[in-house]
Amino acid sequence: MSTKKEQQTTHAAVNGDSRRRQLVLADVERMRVPRRYWKAQWDLVLPLDSEHREAVGRYMRNIVANVQKGWGLHLWGPNDTGKTAIACLVLMEARRWGFSGLFVRSPKLRQVIINNEKFDDSHSWLQRAERVDVLVIDDLGKEYRGDSSFAERMIEGLIRERQGSNRVTILTTNLASRGLVKGKEKTLDDMYQESMLKVMKASIYPQPVKGYNYRTAEEAALRSAMTFG
Where would you tag: which of 14, 66, 74, 146 has the fewest CB atoms within 10 A of its CB? Predict the structure, then answer.
């Protein structure tokens, strides 16, 4: 569910009479964007000539139309290549155009749904995740898995609900769909039902993110800063 103010701004965006605006602290806090990504910058999406930079840049330039159509992104690739930062950039850009949004890590999503945790005074986390215009599910595939298939059914039900109401879902994960990778690398097909993957294919575009390791760069900067004399 969204607040009255969010409903008004979303209505404005859908009807083409919104104006791109600056984000305020309340925006990123309500969307639950992790603090480290509050000041993420498009200029730092690397490599500059990468396929993912071009594809996501095109998506963001057409953000209003893409949100209206309910078209999302499946950002997949190795660890530390900037998938989460890119997802947050898209989420924040959507908010600048008046759309509501939410960021949640997959392991936390499972926890808050099981515990029926409140998002705010009026709504549960599940209600919020179902109804925001743009939902980022970070680290898909890393949710806890016991003997039951609860995690798979939870994720599929949420994605299916959002697709049915024409809402955008953005996924970040190390996992690609089978056919997009070679060899014995684990895929989404190994962890989720075919029914979920079919739903994803209809509304979530798979985009590999690779070619630059941010962790290596951060470690080098840390070593440099901590070297004295």
Answer: 146
